[in-house]
Amino acid sequence: MKVFVTGVAGQLGHDVVNELVSRGYQAVGSDIAPAYSGIQDGTPVTTAPYYALDITNADAVEQVLDQVSPDVVIHCAAWTAVDDAEAPENMDKVRRINATGTQNIATCCKKLDCKMVYISTDYVFDGQGTQPWKPDCKDYKPLNVYGQTKLEGELAVAETLEKYFIVRIAWVFGRNGKNFVKTMLAVGQKYDTVRVVCDQIGTPTYTPDLSRLLVDMIATDKYGYYHATNEGGYISWYDFTCEIYRQMGYTNTVVPVTTEEYGLNKAARPYNSRLDKAKLAENGFTPLPTWQDALARFLKEKED
């Protein structure tokens, strides 16, 4: 099976390619950069072909996908800088990447009759209440530009294709690129006291674990909407930070603050990012390990 992966310079796309290669799939990567810039163990990934591709260019997308002729496209490429998406000068670019770019991919997948995996987000919901969001819930009320454009990407896929997986994730961390864990480690090394938001609730997603699930999915025809984060219970960013520091042996004072008290975000954040993942097991997929276990593996790999 040949699998085309977009966004391979990012956290998830990078690990998806490595998972595919490790399991004997024919992986082909793409991103906006002229050459692949991801790393694993300090060295660039060179085991998969790479195409420089601007997904907002419909002609370029068609040309590359026609040439590659994949059986599956795993679409990880996205604008994910949530606060920067709110800047007026960025809004059009965010929509072209998250919505138009996704439509370009979906259109080509329809032409080639191949499967498509679209990576989405809890931000398509309004984040109110305390009940976990179910994957087939259509009560969309995104709070910010990022969430709105990712929802538009979801709709582009669902309205264009029949053979699709829309997988919503949250609180992503991995070995390649920036993430909350790396940020809090750096902050903990610089400051004795750290203020962290305590009223946004969700569950982290470790990209190597998610990559395993996505590669499991593409071998099936169990299409539809899914939610996929690590197991281990729902927590706040404050809880996550406390566990990061506990596992690392840091003795910092971590102070819980409300989103309003924190006050540094330009984009509105959902308070309730709880995602109901029961549909995974119901369809025969193995759930992800606990986030505590995932964090321990991430920290060990980071030290090694």
Biggest sheet strand line-up: 5-2-1-6-7-8-13
The CATH H-level superfamily is: NAD(P)-binding Rossmann-like Domain
Question: Strand portion, in percent?
Answer: 15-25%
Mean pLDDT: 93
- Count of DSSP E strands? 17
Instruction: State the order of secondary-structure elements, H for helix, E for strand.
Output: EHEEEEHEHEHEEHEEEHEEEHEHHEH
Q: Work out the helix count.
A: 10
Overall tally of structural domains = 1
What's the CATH first level? Alpha Beta
Please give a structural write-up.
- This protein is of the alpha/beta class and 304 residues long.
- The protein has one domain (2-175, 204-231, 274-289): Rossmann fold.
- It is 40% helix and 20% strand.
- It has helices spanning 11-22, 58-68, 88-112, 145-160, 180-190, 207-218, 237-248, 259-262, 278-282, 291-303; strands spanning 2-6, 26-31, 39-40, 43-44, 50-52, 72-75, 115-121, 164-169, 172-173, 193-197, 201-202, 205-206, 224-227, 230-231, 235-236, 253-257, 288-290.
- The chain has a 7-stranded parallel beta sheet with strand order 5-2-1-6-7-8-13, with helices on both faces.
- Strand 3 and strand 4 (43-44) form a beta hairpin.
- Helix 2 runs parallel beside helix 3 and helix 3 packs parallel to helix 4.
- It starts with a strand and ends with a helix.
Give the arrangement of secondary structure elements:
Blueprint: E1 2-6, H1 11-22, E2 26-31, E3 39-40, E4 43-44, E5 50-52, H2 58-68, E6 72-75, H3 88-112, E7 115-121, H4 145-160, E8 164-169, E9 172-173, H5 180-190, E10 193-197, E11 201-202, E12 205-206, H6 207-218, E13 224-227, E14 230-231, E15 235-236, H7 237-248, E16 253-257, H8 259-262, H9 278-282, E17 288-290, H10 291-303
Helix pairs in contact: 1-6, 2-3, 3-4, 7-10
